[in-house]
Amino acid sequence: MGYPPRYGRPSDETARGLAVIALLAVGLVIGAVVTMVTVLDPPAPMRSASATAGAAHSEEEVRRSVQPVLDAYSSGSYGDFWDLWSTDAKGLIGREDYIRLFRLCPQPTDGATSTGAPPADPSADPASTGLPSGGAAFTIDSVTVHGDDATVQAIRSGTATGFGFRFEEGSWRYAPSPEEREEYRTKTADQIALERRGAGLCGATVPDPADPANPSPGPVPGSSPDPADPSSAPSSNGPSPGPADPSEGRTGPTSDPAASTPASGATPDVFTPAPDPSSPPSGSVRDPERDPAAPSSDPASAPPAQES
Q: What's in the keyword line of the UniProt record (predicted)?
């Protein structure tokens, strides 16, 4: 006859299960305590990074960071201004094309915006306005920060204009408006300049000396001609003078150069030197018979006259 079956777990298994449950409970308590300490008292590096990010997003820091960006544009340093754009905005138009855009269409002085939009209302959304144009510097009027995006209202020549900026790589960079983005994305610099010029939004264009399409200007009226270049002599006061008269400045009778030029085969005139002191004085008569060198009075023996 066998023994009856035993009911329930052995006492040793029950003890092991209770021990596991107790360990799990202790682990949960420890994890909760560590989490609370980490959240309520973060490590020093985390606190430093958080404090730095908070300082960079303050109104004073935004003012200090965006003022050089606005100064670069207002002073005409378009390459430096483009360097301070956000990364995605730089992909809309290249640096050289942006500089060329303002070479073709310089900033006007009437306070109109470079994209053709009217001056912005200070209460309007700055993201919907374009860059203003002019020559004066910008004065920041107000700053509004929304996370990593900032809205800056700047005044120039009495006109308020809105700008968008984005915090990227530790600094605030210019973020073009949606209208500007669409313009740079769909058109070339020449097309944009042509449209702006047609709308009267460009200033006086300065010719680029490096461009072959712009020939160098001629001599300035009234300037001294180049002695090495006969064509540079001024011709606005009548026909060019002829060659100088060789007889000009001389005294006494002069001979006609045309008449003194000997014909072909003729003997040219020879300048007669001063008389020899040993010769007889002027007015004396020589005897042809005694002096062979004396001139003969016989017409037949006289030498033929020399053609002049």
A: Membrane, Transmembrane, Transmembrane helix
Domain 59-198 homologous superfamily, CATH? NTF2-like; domain 1 (3.10.450.100)
Helix (H, G, I), strand (E, B) or coil at 190: helix
The phi and psi torsions of 174 (rounded to 5 degrees) equal -70, 135
Locate the domains of the chain by residue range.
59-198
Verdict on whether the full-model pTM lies above 0.85: no
203 and 111 Cβ atoms separated by less than 8 Å: no
DSSP letter at 224 equals P
Q: Distance between CA atoms of 188 and 190, rounded to whole angstroms? A: 5
In one-letter notation, the amino acid at residue 32 is A
Q: Are residues 80 and 97 in contact, defined by beta-carbon separation less than 8 angstroms? A: no
User: What torsion do the CA atoms of 48, 54, 57, 61 make, to the nearest 10 degrees?
Assistant: -70
Strands (DSSP E) found in 69-197 = 139-146, 149-156, 159-168, 171-174
